[in-house]
Amino acid sequence: MRVSDRRFGAIPRRDGTVEFRVWAPNAQSVSVRIGGETYPLAAETDGVFADVRRAAPGDRYRFVLDGGAELPDPCSRLQPEGVRGPSCVVEVPRAPRLGLDLDELVIYELHVGTFSAAGTFDGVVPHLRELRELGVTAIELMPVATFPGARGWGYDGVYVYAPHPAYGGSDGLGRLVENAHREGLGVILDVVYNHVGPGAEALTTFGPYLDTGIATEWGDGVDFSRAAVREWAIQNALMWVDEYGIDGLRLDAIHAVRDESVSHVLVELADRVHATSPRALVISETFPGDERPQAWGHDAQWDDGLHHALHALLTGEREGYYAPYGSVEDVARELDRRPAERHVVYAQDHDQVGNRALGDRLPPELLLVASSVVLFSAQTPLVFMGEEYGERNPFRFFTDHIDAAIAEATREGRKREFAAYSGFSGEVPDPQAEETFLRSRLSRLEASGTRDHYRRLLALRRRLPREVRTEVDGSRLTMRRGDAVLIADFERRTVALST
Fold first, then answer.
1. Residue 473 lies in a domain
2. Closest to 369 (Cα-Cα) out of 347, 395, 392
3. C-alpha radius of gyration, the chain, whole number
4. Is the pLDDT of residue 301 over 90?
5. Residue 95 pLDDT exceeds 80
6. Closest by alpha carbon to 100, among 273, 223, 339, 350?
7. CB contact at 8 A, 48 and 21
8. Are residues 308 and 351 in contact, defined by beta-carbon separation less than 8 angstroms?
């Protein structure tokens, strides 16, 4: 039996039993400890161990390797006590799929922990209707996989199958998807397959999930030359769309995914997601100008280029990745990327706000210009949480690492990063401090007229043709879509719209 024909993790069956399966080529024997009892698993091929045991949703378990180490399941569906606690058998709540239309897609990106005072999946639900009425068609959740500690951006997930317990776990995510679909909103989930966060040694005790020869900005890369590791990622993607009813996946930093197989792992992932749910979207994040996602059969890609061009022109910042930009012609060039609907663009997103030293958002007068260009463009627009009403609270980089050495390394890394920027002086907020996290929560204090501005432009784009014509005249950019004309003056920082 091929590895791809076998489901990993703890899968409940209708007869009151659970099928346990784990890839553990580093072990000679594997058992599963359920409650106070330990049961041996049978060795299959390719380093896989499996068996069916009497168990039920809610039961907690660990895998025991060679009679010694007791570890969580690499494909755990729930870690109720965090990354170092036991795994929990879960009957994943199934939600009917909504399906998304790329031609009509308007994405709203949010971080579950800071979007509401509750900081949970349930805390998002009361705001869904206002987002639909704004003109949003799908919410995009920053990663929700279980990571060390209670607060963080989510890109350091360790148990990628397990929705973070601080957010409400698997049940909470299921309720959010169900309620979003009831409001006519799709749900896109940000997923990370390029590295694993601190605590990865629990995974690598089972087998070589990571390759020390693959360096990423965040640690060792994932070793996709191994069939079981490919399944770890692909079956995770399938779980989100098939079991939770998630309508799309945003693949984080695909430029950091190395695979020299005949069929790249991200090609196979997209093919199998589309076979399971033809209307589910696969969207990739990569560098500006990297068009591989389209060749790989992905539906769309995040495109930083328009953001960088707008930001450099409006703020005058030229360091780092803003260095190649700074003219109105740069903005016009980015607006001409085709196919337009396959490029996701934004005036702000979590990276472009949160990776600034202070997590500061664009000032209102600059956001008005940048957002107008984005929302009037032919590309697929993304709105970052709070910008639709002029949120002034920052969105900062925050962590809650439970390993003291990693926490200190994170602090020092942030300080070193911004010491190199001539335009910044002062103290970088401590990412480990709870105050840094709390300061990033939405205040929901509205700036006058901002929400109406977003609502008007989102309503307008629904009736306009896809084609956009652009003209540059000095500091002015003119954009024409059908009978509508938008003129952005980057020197005066004004926008005029006629329809």
1. no
2. 347
3. 23
4. yes
5. no
6. 273
7. yes
8. no
Which of 285, 304, 330, 400 is an active site residue? 285
CB of 212 closer than 8 Å to CB of 161: no
Segments forming the whole domain that contains residue 330: 102-415+433-466
Mean pLDDT over 257-267 rounds to 95
Total domains present in the chain = 2
With beta carbons less than 8 A apart as the criterion, state whether 297 and 272 touch: no
DSSP of 78-105: --TT-TTS-EE---PPP-------GGG-
How far are the Cα atoms of 45, 70, 78, 161, 170 from residue 87, in angstroms, in the given order? 24, 11, 6, 11, 12
Share of the chain above pLDDT 70, in %: 99
- Which residue of the set 252, 259, 299, 400 is catalytic? 252
Q: Span 116-132, mean pLDDT?
A: 98
Q: Are 240 and 286 in the same domain? A: yes
pLDDT of 425 above 70: no
317 in catalytic set = no
Q: Are 343 and 307 in contact (CB under 8 A)?
A: no
| SS3 of residue 226 by DSSP | coil
Could you confirm whether 434 is annotated as catalytic? no
d(CA 110, CA 105): 16
408 and 276 both lie in a single domain: yes
Tokens of 328: 């109105």
71 and 149: one domain?
no
Q: Are strands 484-489 and 494-498 parallel, antiparallel or unpaired?
A: antiparallel
State the Cα–Cα distance between residues 380 and 378, nearest whole angstrom: 7
What are the pLDDT digits (tens) for 331-385? 999 999 999 999 999 999 999 999 999 999 999 999 999 999 999 999 999 999 9
Closest by CA position to 324, among listed 342, 339, 312: 312
Mean pLDDT of 26-37: 96
